[in-house]
């Protein structure tokens, strides 16, 4: 797993590549927590390069959703591959956060 992050004010885009599973979920949590701790209230997670996410990875996303909501913003997902979107739908995550086609659309949703 690799996370590359870009910042614009209180919004960040985290591009995730690879797999998120129990072996690296703690690292993923630390990455997202560090982003939020920098004062980011609106976080976009770009899943375009994500190959797999386990329940441990979903838990990390759930924690990040809670933290960004508490900060007055939120978390949005974008570029979600079909097989990952299916996991998000089955697990109910699509009711907890918005899913967009592109990072630009996701970023724009926070400007409203």
Indicate the overall shape.
globular
H/E element sequence: EEHEHEHEH
**Main beta sheet:** 5 strands, mixed
Indicate the mean pLDDT.
96
By helix and strand content, what is the structural category?
A: alpha/beta
Measured on Cα atoms, how large is the radius of gyration?
Answer: 12 Å
Percent of residues in helices comes to 40-55%
Number of strands: 5
Low-confidence spans: pLDDT under 50, at least 5 residues? Answer: none
Strand order in space, largest sheet: 1-2-3-4-5
Amino- and carboxy-terminal Cα gap: 32 Å
* Percent of sequence in beta strands: 25-35%
- Note the total helix count: 4
Keywords:
112 residues, alpha/beta, five-stranded mixed beta sheet, 4 helices, 5 strands
Outline the secondary-structure elements.
Elements: E1 2-8, E2 11-20, H1 25-37, E3 42-53, H2 55-70, E4 74-78, H3 82-91, E5 98-100, H4 103-110
Parallel strand pairs: 2-3, 3-4, 4-5
Antiparallel strand pairs: 1-2
What does this entry look like structurally?
The chain is globular and about 30 Å long. The relative contact order is 0.18. It has helices spanning 25-37, 55-70, 82-91, 103-110; strands spanning 2-8, 11-20, 42-53, 74-78, 98-100. Helix 1 runs parallel beside helix 2. The mean pLDDT is 96. Strands 1-2-3-4-5 form a five-stranded mixed β-sheet, sandwiched between helices. The chain is built from four helices and five strands, in the order ββαβαβαβα. The chain is of the alpha/beta class and 112 residues long.
Short description, anyone?
The chain has 112 residues and is an alpha/beta fold. It has helices at 25-37, 55-70, 82-91, 103-110, and strands at 2-8, 11-20, 42-53, 74-78, 98-100.
